[in-house]
Specification:
mainly alpha
């Protein structure tokens, strides 16, 4: 998963390095790779971090919810997405 090189803050909504984890944007920051190499971390590493610090399971609790939300989005918009099948 991609991470940010700046600590999240709702007070800094204009700071693209806080809110956009796109590698093309992050790599232009002087803090790129400050927390993780190339601002990327595996699910396994993230799982351990959350378990150790928050006693939360990424794989067991959070990822299934993300997948369900993505499925809901596709189900809600799937017939409305324009495709040009020429």
């Amino acid at each position: 998963m991609r991470t940010s090189c700046k600590e999240y803050s709702r007070d800094k909504l204009d700071n693209k390095f806080v809110h956009l984890t796109n590698d093309a944007i992050q790599k232009s920051s002087v803090d790129y790779g400050k927390y993780e190499s190339s601002n990327k971390v595996s699910y396994v590493v993230f799982e351990k971090l959350l378990k150790d610090e928050k006693n939360v399971s990424f794989m067991g609790e959070i990822l299934p919810k993300i997948k369900a939300l993505v499925t809901d989005v596709f189900n809600a918009t799937g017939t409305k997405i324009y495709t040009n099948n020429k």
